[in-house]
Write a structure and sequence with these properties.
Layout (H helix, E strand, L loop, with lengths): L1 E8 L5 E8 L46 H16 L3 H24 L5 H6 L1 H10 L2 H11 L4 H13 L5 H28 L6 H15 L3 H24 L3 H17 L5 H13 L6 H33 L3
Antiparallel strand pairs: 1-2
Helix pairs in contact: 1-6, 1-9, 1-12, 2-5, 2-7, 2-11, 4-10, 5-10, 6-7, 6-12, 7-11, 8-11, 9-10, 9-12, 11-12
Length: 324
């Protein structure tokens, strides 16, 4: 009779040992000296090899920070519908805000890059770039982030909606009229506030704002028209870029390069000029209201509309919207 020791696992998971007696004679173990050489060799078994492992790979494509162009055009159409449904007072008030904010950007440009005569004399290209980079990009960024109604961008947005038959012509003209009027009022108010704050009281700054206003009303009608076309082509592409981007940083970057380019190259923006010319007049520029309207605001506005309608709304409707 032999005595055997067994290991028993209890229900609680703890092992215990107990002794039982067997009534058969003991046999030599496999590890006894007599059987050490004849004991069969056991191949080690990897426990992990007996388990079936399921590997889950998430087939997720990282989402980019920009929409593809056809999706951007759809976003433009959705924005047009939203603007068409907006009540009149909201459009007017947001138009006022846009005019004032663009005025802030134009004022910043006047008091930094334009007020650097030594830099302009030594390196006019760099000075022009400074005027483009510091000022109006900040103004348009504020417009976009606050949802203000900028006429030049609205021309592209609303005409896209009209081409796609998403809005009526009446809604388009109502938005254009109210945003344009609001922009003009906001720009004039900002010009008076800037003059009252004496932001251009330094000799270099005063000479800059007077010179800017004078040069703008000295353009030929055709020159102002072409500069207006080139300007709003870039401005509308900046607005397009903000609709493509899904992040604030992306929107800021989408604004920076097109706006910097148009200011650096000397193009003409009707809403910015609604501030720049009156501000120059308040600081002593010899310009009449007639000069401002006929020599600049009228041809520049017409150029801004042409580029938004043909080169941005019309072009992208042909590419992405006419199939629908």
């Amino acid at each position: 009779m032999t005595t055997a020791r067994h290991f028993v696992m209890t229900s609680g998971g703890c092992g215990g040992a107990h002794i039982t007696k067997r009534r058969y004679p003991s046999r030599p173990s496999a590890m006894s000296p007599g059987r050490l050489r004849t004991a069969p060799k056991k191949t080690p078994v990897n426990v992990a090899s007996r388990r079936k492992c399921l590997t889950v790979v998430a087939n997720v494509v990282p989402q980019g920070d920009a929409l593809p162009p056809p999706a951007v055009f759809n976003a433009v159409l959705a924005t047009a519908e939203k603007k068409a449904a907006q009540d009149l007072s909201t459009t007017l008030v947001l138009g006022f805000s846009a005019g004032a904010l663009i005025g802030i950007g134009a004022l910043l440009m006047s008091c930094v890059g334009a007020s650097s005569p030594a830099l302009a004399a030594a390196n006019p290209g760099l000075c022009n770039f400074l005027k483009g980079a510091v000022g109006l990009p900040a103004g348009l960024t504020l417009v976009i982030l606050t949802g203000a109604e900028l006429f030049t961008g609205n021309v592209m947005t609303m005409f896209s909606g009209l081409l796609a038959k998403r809005i009526e012509a009446g809604a388009l003209f109502r938005n254009w009229l109210l945003s344009y009027a609001g922009n003009f009022i906001g720009s004039i108010v900002m010009a008076y506030l800037a003059f009252g704050a004496k932001t251009a009281s330094a000799p270099a700054a005063k000479a800059a704002v007077v010179g800017i206003a004078t040069s703008k009303v000295s353009l030929s009608f055709g020159g102002a028209l072409c500069k207006g076309i080139l300007c709003n082509w870039l401005v509308c592409l900046a607005v397009w870029g903000t609709m493509a981007s899904t992040s604030v940083a992306g929107k800021v970057l989408a604004i920076f390069w097109p706006i910097t380019a148009f200011v650096t190259l000397g193009f003409e923006h009707s809403v910015a000029n609604m501030f720049l010319i009156p501000h120059g007049m308040l600081n002593g520029a010899q310009i009449t209201v007639k000069d401002m309207m006929l020599n600049n605001i009228l041809p520049v506005t017409l150029g801004n509309v042409i580029s938004a309608v043909i080169f941005v709304a019309g072009l992208h409707f042909w590419a992405y919207g006419r199939q629908n």
